[in-house]
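Lecture notes, unit on protein representations.

Consider one protein chain, 113 amino acids long.
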Amino acid sequence: QLVESGGGLVQAGGSLRLSCAASGRTFSIYAVGWFRQAPGKERVFVAAIDKSGGSTTYADSVKGRFTIFRDNAKNLVYLEMNSLKPEDTAVYYCASGPVYTYWGQGTQVTVSS
């Protein structure tokens, strides 16, 4: 089970840190991804981190502004979001498991201009 938190309302240029908390002892054997879905749009990839935290990938739209990292001892994955833009407004989801089998319920991020 995955639970996201940390969303909220922020002004453009601001920052937020999202957290993805996982239950179970198998969390550290899977990569974790963050995705987002804006109103009326499809869910899209934002960032991912491998099981050890040694390798990360980002969508071009967030590269240089967002950072994904994890703490396997605490079963947590974070998404640090800086220099936020109104177009970052979306519900953010974390996913894990084989082929992203498991998803959280999402957390709303709203960036005002």
